[in-house]
Write a structure and sequence with these properties.
The protein is α/β, with parallel strands linked by helices. Helices cover about 35% and strands about 20% of the residues. The strands form two sheets. The chain has a three-stranded parallel β-sheet with strand order 3-4-5, with helices on one face. It is globular, with a radius of gyration of 15 Å.
Length: about 170
């Protein structure tokens, strides 16, 4: 196994932002815990800003010796923002860049449509590190392949084989 603990937070977003679970040990997560149901539009910018703020607040409230060594943020969407009311693309980009620059978090974007790929590219343009966006075909096989590629890249960082999540690398 990989060194350290792996805790996962999952947030669902569409026209609403919802905490599915936070800081749950990876060994305690069952597939049914991760079922997401499409419900409406895409408040992408609001959701990115809210999710990063929630994660940062939770992590900074932990004793320093219990904070994670690595934080991986992956946005997975099939659409372009069309419902954000509180945040702009620039707000989401700045929030993402801030956690990457200030804390060294790994920020990536998995896009299941050309519109989503364009959004991911705009939000991560100029961000330091390896390529940040990967497109995938929204089928079972395409989704599984994207998750496997991301999981392998994340494992490479956690094990010290890589400094950043490289989404262009083949798994």
């Amino acid at each position: 196994g990989l060194p350290g603990r792996c805790r996962i937070s999952l947030y669902q977003f569409d026209h609403q932002w919802q905490v599915v679970f936070e800081a749950k040990s990876s060994g305690d997560i069952k597939p049914e815990d991760c079922r997401l149901v499409p419900r409406g539009n895409t408040a992408l910018y609001d959701s990115v800003v809210k999710s990063l703020a929630a994660m940062e607040a939770r992590i900074l409230n932990e004793p320093e010796d219990q904070r994670p060594k690595f934080v991986f943020v992956v946005v997975i969407t099939d659409g372009k923002n069309n419902a954000s009311k509180e945040s702009s693309r620039e707000d989401a980009k700045k929030a993402s860049e801030r956690v990457v620059d200030k804390f060294g978090w790994k920020f990536n974007y998995l896009a299941a449509s050309p519109d989503a790929f364009e959004e991911g590219g705009a939000m991560t343009a100029g961000m330091r590190g390896a390529p940040k966006v990967r497109g995938f075909i929204p089928t079972s096989a395409g989704t599984r392949g994207a998750y496997q590629t991301y999981g392998k890249a994340m494992s490479d960082v956690r094990s010290g084989k890589a400094d950043d999540v490289d989404l262009k690398k083949k798994s």
